[in-house]
Amino acid sequence: MLLAFLRGELASERFSGDLHTALEACGAEPSLITEGNPENPAENALRREVMGAFRGYGRNEELFHNFPEHVKWECAELEQDDLAHIRYIDYSYWNELSGGTSLPLDAVQAIREDRRIFDVPNDRFLAGERFLRAGGKFPPVILLTSGSGQYIIVEGHLRMTSYALAPEYFAGNACFVGICSLAELKQWNDGYE
Predict the structure, then answer these.
(1) Residue pLDDT tens, the chain, 193 long
(2) Do residues 33 and 128 share a domain?
(3) Bridging pattern class, strands 86-87 and 151-155
């Protein structure tokens, strides 16, 4: 999961600068991500350190504040019906963009109407949609669930929004799904049902 998370963020306009800063602070090269071997314990330890510096992983900080401790990770393939059950993390920007539902599918209307939430342009979502329609493939998104059929995005909010704009390109893509208890998931993400 850590390697997939870092690969997704390395390609992000928003987060790649901070990730490069964390890599440098930890004495790591980008190849730790681009050529990473998830079977190498030393690399895994260094990636964990980078994730801590970058997004608070293992430190109970930032995105990973109250993150579930007991998660079983699986690689899965997304099915078309899954799109209606994937939600944004409980965060003001995503709440506003989706009209309070946390559903990427509900964010489509705001984006198509060019409603700017907190004055943030929607260009990046439309660029993601164009990328998909031109035959591009995104890295896997990372989701968390308690097994109830609802999924919370841990990493890949922009990509999931692009899929909502071009849903015909959603099914068949790989993802990582973490399964944890309902109590732990609610502690991390207040908006989980």
Answers:
(1) 999 999 999 988 889 999 999 999 999 999 999 999 999 999 999 999 999 999 999 999 999 999 999 999 999 999 999 999 999 999 999 999 999 999 999 999 999 999 999 999 999 999 999 999 999 999 999 999 999 899 999 999 999 999 999 999 999 999 999 999 999 999 999 755 5
(2) no
(3) parallel
Read off the tokens for 12: 């992000």
DSSP character at residue 64: G
Distance (Å) of CA 128 to CA 27, 106, 125, 165: 32, 17, 5, 9
Evaluate whether residue 24 is within a structural domain. Answer: yes
Range of the domain at 55: 2-64
pTM exceeds 0.90: yes
Provide the 3-class DSSP secondary structure of residue 135. Answer: coil
C-alpha 161/C-alpha 129 separation (Å) is: 8
- What is the DSSP secondary structure assignment for residue 147, as one 8-state letter? S
Contact 74, 177 (CB under 8 A): yes
